[in-house]
Each structure stands twice: as C-alpha cells, then as structure tokens.
Amino acid sequence: MSYKIAICDDCITDIAYIKKLVKDWSGTAEKTVNIRTFLSAEAFLFQYEEEKDFDMLLLDIEMGGQNGVELAKKVRQDNHWVQIVFITGFPDFMAEGYEVSALHYLMKPVTGEKLFSVLDRAAAGLEKQERRLPIVHDRQTDFVPLDRILYLEAQKQYVCIHTVDRVYRMKASLREMEASLDKYFFKCQRSFLINLCHVAQIRGKCVVLKNGEEVPISRGMADEVSRAVIELF
Fold first, then answer.
1. What b/e readout covers 36-61, taking b as 16+ CB neighbours within 10 angstroms?
2. What pLDDT digit, counting tens, does each position of 55-108 carry?
3. Distance in angstroms (rounded) separating the CA atoms of residues 223 and 89
4. How far lies 204's CA from each of 192, 214, 224, in Å?
5. pTM of the model
6. pLDDT tens digit string along 169-222?
7. How far is CA 178 from CA 31, 127, 146, 181, 195, in A?
8. Please, which residues have CB within 8 angstroms of residue 5's CB and are 6 or more apart in sequence?
9. pLDDT tens, 122-141?
C-alpha cells in the first residue's frame, strides 16, 4: 500500500531524522510513502485545508504557536481515520494525546526500532479500516465509504459522485478520482465509472443499478462489464 505521511516539527534537524527513519521503514516494510514536512502546526493546517487525505501524522507537541495537540484536535473534528503519533521530548501532554485517539506517544530521541513498530501498527490499522474516498466540496471534505458510491460521472472540469443517499460535485478529473478507487470500479464509458457491486442488470447500451438507475456504457462494452462482474464475484 501507499501512505501519505505528514511530519510536523519546528526543528529542521528532527524533521530530517524522522523523515530518514520513515524512509528506512518503507523500504523494510515494502511500503510506498509520500512524505510531507511542516515546520509549524499553522503551516500544516493551511495545507490541510486543500489536502485532507493524509494517512499518518507524526507530530511534535511543543512548537511555536499552536502545539501538536491543538493541531490534532482540529484534525479530529472531521477526520477520525488518520493515524496520529506524537514524537516529543515532553511527557506532560500524554493525557491530552489520548483525548485525540493518538496511536502512540514516542519520546525523543526516538529509535528506529520503536518508530518502525508504531508505523507497522498504523499501517495495520489503516488496512483494517473501511476504505473511504475524500470528497472536497463546499469548503469541506467528506470521507465517503467506497461501497456507498454507485458511480462517478465526468462533467467538464468536475466529477459528480453519485452515492446511495446524495450526489457530490467535486472539481477533479475522472482519471484523478479513479486512482483513489478500488478494483470494484469499472470504466464503462469515457465519462462514467461504475461500482460493480451495485450492478443489477447489463443491457446493450446501459447497466441498471440495484436502485433502478441506468448508467450508459460504450458500444460493445456489455460483454466486458459482464466479464468484470463474473471475475470479481
């Protein structure tokens, strides 16, 4: 799996050290990591407004301005899935760390062995979680379980995500969205991705979903959709 990891610490030396350990872990655990670094809680939260798809947060606590616990509390307001790990030289905030469901609390200087163990636990926790798609709309982000998505429809610079209970409209390309989906999503037409779990019937020019909606498919695509459903189920 691939993990997007943020390291937030006001000490450049500590950031470089933790980043190296994370890279070493990724090689040992055979994981792909995308590491982002931030020198303050404010810098992270500014970026978080646009990117809420982080999988793990490795946070110092004592920083100038907002501390790591305050950062974690803001993240937890709308994100209960990200794995939070505090790496700090101060034990005073340990109780508050548990308030934000932190996975672990590591004291500096952290060893590779201890960090590797915690990252293994974080990865295992993420793999157990129900996969969700982050949908950015109306200046907020909703994390929608993939199994609740019926299909996605490209509309110029936007993608409409049709779920079992509502339709979201997000500025993105269908190709970008496809990269965040799983094997159950199938491109049945240039502008449509369907969730094969919701297919009830396949016709010549469309698929009929379990809720009765019809989604168009490309000419000659009916057999391919049928094969995809058979292979998966």
1. ebbbbbeebbeebeeebbbbbbbbbb
2. 999 999 988 888 899 999 999 887 888 999 999 887 766 666 666 878 888 999
3. 61
4. 16, 12, 11
5. 0.62
6. 999 999 999 988 988 999 999 999 999 989 999 998 999 999 999 999 998 889
7. 21, 19, 12, 5, 11
8. 22, 33, 34, 35, 36, 54, 55, 56, 57, 58
9. 998 887 776 788 898 888 88
Residue closest to 180 by CA, chosen among 199, 209, 152, 206: 152
Give the Cα-Cα-Cα angle 95, 96, 97 (nearest 5 degrees): 90
Which DSSP helix (H) or strand (E) runs through 97? helix 94-99
Residue 109: cis peptide before it, omega within 30 degrees of 0: yes
161 strand-pairing partners? 152, 168
Give the three-class secondary structure for 49. Answer: coil
CB 40 within 8 A of CB 12: no
Amino acid letter at 18?
A: I
Cβ-based neighbours of 155, under 8 Å, separated by 6 or more? 169, 191
The per-residue pLDDT for 180 is: 87
Mean pLDDT value of segment 14-22 = 97
Q: Which residue type sits at 199?
A: V
Distance of alpha carbon 117 from alpha carbon 125, whole angstroms: 12
